[in-house]
Amino acid sequence: MPDQPADESVERMEFMLTLRRRGISDQAVLRAMDEVPREHFVGPADTESAYTDHALPIACGQTISQPYVVAYMSEQLAVRPDHRVLEIGTGSGYQAAVLSRLAREVISIERYRTLADTARSRLKTLGYDNVEIVLGDGLVGMPERAPFDRIIVTAAAETIPEALVEQLGVDGVMILPLGPHSGPQELVKLTMTKQGPVRTNLIPVRFVPLLPGRAREL
Ligand code: SAH
Hints:
The chain has helices at residues 6-21, 27-35, 67-77, 94-100, 113-126, 162-166; strands at residues 56-57, 63-64, 84-88, 105-110, 131-135, 148-153, 168-178, 185-193, 196-205. The protein is of the alpha/beta class. It has one domain: Vaccinia Virus protein VP39 (Rossmann fold, 3-Layer(aba) Sandwich). The model has no long low-confidence stretch (mean pLDDT 96). The structure holds S-adenosyl-L-homocysteine.
């Protein structure tokens, strides 16, 4: 990247180093994190902080997740190039962009029209053309397009959404933050076997709540 100012490329190097230090080792995930320009997904006031390892505020009172958590969830999801992935909670579209580098197709559902529209045009401008953003209720999922190889939920559910479990194919993996809306949450991995879903608890996390229905405001 010869025409990037020096301090910007140092920032990007530190960003990648932090992910590696914290244990992200999947090369495809690291490459995707390196490729997707996070500064395009944060608000104008936050571009300077885009490569720090923090969650940042976006419109509609929501947040773009911390880079480490995006990388960790992407790694745990074990996405292959032939996979179809369903994301619940588009937000800025950043996690969807990272997944689009790993999967064949990403469908992402968002309950706020403003966020869905912004993410859709942002992803189009950046050329991520294997991502589809849908305005709707992620708790319902997208039964008409199921089964999915992978499902990722990026807002915290108090209980495992059964409709989503039903949309997971055999050998499918779903990652979701589980726990009370303003209390301790845990990242959970569900692997779908012929006998049903098998649960593994991963790491403690903090996500905005998964709320039912489409948002009433824009
Ligand atoms: N993945 C996002 C982070 C999203 S924050 C990113 O990379 O930026 C969680 C998002 O989930 C918020 O935008 C919130 O509006 C959305 N959300 C919460 N409940 C939802 C539901 N039932 N259906 C769809 N989206 C939902």
